[in-house]
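Sequence only, no structure available. Ideas?
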Amino acid sequence: MALEAADTEEELDETDELARDLRARSLEFIKDRISGLTWEKMQELVAGLLRAMGYKTRISPAGSDRGKDIIASPDGFGFEQPRIVVGVKHRPNTAIGSQELRSFLGGRHKDDKGLYVSTGGFTKDAKYEADRGSIPVVLLDLNDLSNEIVRHYGEMDMEARSLIPLTTILWPT
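Reply:
I predicted one. Tokens follow.
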């Protein structure tokens, strides 16, 4: 009887390990798909994520946007609070530094909230700048963005889902 219990526990450990490995591999595939998007599609993906979270979004037209790639708010115009100003940088191998983040924060209004998405991540100085900025700002790197997409995928509209098509895998618990 004790031998059967040990075998069952070992099988459960193996199953848990396989599940963790599958989740990690899936996240890597999602990150690869995100990295392969164009910068325009990247902005659409981030806007789709915000819509899944209950906001209405407006993507800035191409050209000089002064760090406002997307405006998200309850009304979609940025009149109702919270108004989230989003900067999106899609440069997988280039981390955002403190100067770029400072520039993003400098153009914001006192009641704005900031979201800065960078597929290349953020330097230590940029994270420090975000902590001490005059407005609240959330930094999302590629890993964070991938996790948020997985978390809110069920609420994403078809336009956003088409950018990163995912399927559900059923796994025994």
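The helical segments are 2-35, 39-52, 98-106, 124-131, 142-152, 158-161.
Hope that gets you unstuck.
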